[in-house]
Amino acid sequence: MSNSYSSSTILLIDSHPFLSSKIPTTLNFRFINWKRSLKKSLMAQPPILSIALPSETGRVLSIQSHTVQGYVGNKSAVFPLQLLGYDVDPINSVQFSNHTGYPTFKGQVLNGKQLWDLVEGLEANNLLFYTHLLTGYIGSVSFLDTVLEVVTKLRSVNPGLIYVCDPVMGDEGKLYVPEDLVSVYREKVVPVASMLTPNQFEAELLTGLRIVSEQDGREACNKLHVAGPAKVVITSINIDGNLYLIGSNKKEKDGTPEQFKIMIPKIPAYFTGTGDLMTALLLGWSNKYPDNLAKAAELAVSSLQAVLHRTIHDYKVAGFDPKTSSLEIRLIQSQDDIRNPQVKFNADKYS
Fold first, then answer.
1. pLDDT digits (tens, 9 = 90+) for 56-98
2. In whole angstroms, what is the distance from residue 122 CA to residue 156 CA?
3. Phi and psi at residue 42, in whole multiples of 5°?
4. Strands (DSSP E) along the chain, which ranges?
5. Catalytic residue numbers, as ranges
6. pTM of the prediction?
7. Is 273 left (phi over 0), alpha (psi -120 to 50) or beta?
8. Which residues form the Pyridoxamine kinase/Phosphomethylpyrimidine kinase domain (predicted)?
9. pLDDT-based confidence at 211, cuts 50/70/90?
């Protein structure tokens, strides 16, 4: 029985197009060693199908918060990525009964050692081959330092790992993480990120620039490119009462980045989990369109707006005034808008 599993697993690993043709030549040496180790570990167990027969889109490790009720953090990110075809393995940095905007909440907080224990467990079973790492809210310097160790570990297995980082630190001029985290993000996280998705306030913290115009937003993107990530999306910039997304894709190290904006209509309501959802959608669509960040952003924005409008509609149907409180997004009910969004918000490329 074990020999039968071993043979089929080896055949799957050797012949599957994702593993045979999509791994760059420069990664072959590391990948072959990892593959040999995996084959040995599978001699006495069934194949790990998420590795032996991986999704055509990718395999994501998502380190974010979790709530039992409601949609924030991993609850906002995992389901949409799965709908877009990704295998997603969540690690919950916190596990709370509900988000902290409610009158009370209870739960547990994962520390850096516990995070590393999970990673070591995966490593012991040769389960650390990921195409993407996604991180969101992180509440302590020690945990963020461990996340950086995770990045290094994952890239030792797959040097082509794409790290998508939402540097959740605050909004509208207010920090809601310890101030020490800002320098860690600026000095250590930004340089190793592949894609960064800050809001306006977070982009200002990371660059030291005050963003009061579109040109300021573009310059902030340029400064972040110099620090590390090839793709930067400032997900919301408020300029003279208008809301914009500004994106920038630097395809070559010494090249000029392709930059664009998308005007976003303001909705008179406050929602939870939208930033987490937006970053997940940007990861999902940018990987499907790796050379066209503008198209990926159009799909992500259009999908998010559809979710928000459905949420507003459903609260009104329930007889609730959506302007009076924060709203839990209607994620499950919007799955068609996540899989196949109708593009209603177009990117305007800067010359």
1. 889 999 999 999 999 999 999 999 999 999 999 999 998 888 8
2. 14
3. -95, 5
4. 59-67, 87-96, 107-109, 132-135, 162-165, 170-171, 174-175, 195-196, 231-239, 242-249, 258-264, 270-272, 326-328, 348-349
5. 276
6. 0.87
7. left
8. 135-241
9. very high
